[in-house]
Amino acid sequence: MNHLINWTLAVATALVLSTAYLLDGPSDHQAAIDAAADAKATQAEKRAQARFEKAAQAMCGDNAGWTQLANGSVQCLTKRGHKTQKVQL
In Å, how far from its chain's centre is CA 5? Predict the structure, then answer.
């Protein structure tokens, strides 16, 4: 009787351990969710950049150029490239 219980436990343990490979790594479903989240974040960044560019152009004027400075402000330029004003958005 003890041998039967031992064999049953050994087989059950082997079955459980043989399914461990199913737990490795993210599933295809999770990869699809991550890809969709990345695409959504990229679209949000593009929309934010477009809003920033539109606001900078409005602050500097329709015919003016502008460059973004390291501190987040905008340097307005004339059409010939001369600096006019700094604007903080």
Answer: 53
**What is the mean pLDDT of the segment spanning 11-27?**
80
Q: Based on C-alpha coordinates, what's the Rg of the chain? A: 30
Higher pLDDT, 77 or 86: 77
Dist CA 81 CA 10 (whole Å): 80
pLDDT of residue 25: 67
- The first and second tokens of residue 7, run together, are 């064999």
State the pTM of this model: 0.56
Strand order in the sheet with 83-88: 65-68, 73-77, 83-88
Determine the Cα–Cα distance for residues 53 and 87; give it in Å rounded to an integer. 13
What is the Cα–Cα distance from 72 to 87, expressed in whole angstroms? 9
Residue 55, C-beta contacts closer than 8 angstroms, at least 6 positions apart: 89
Question: So where are the chain's domains?
Answer: 62-89
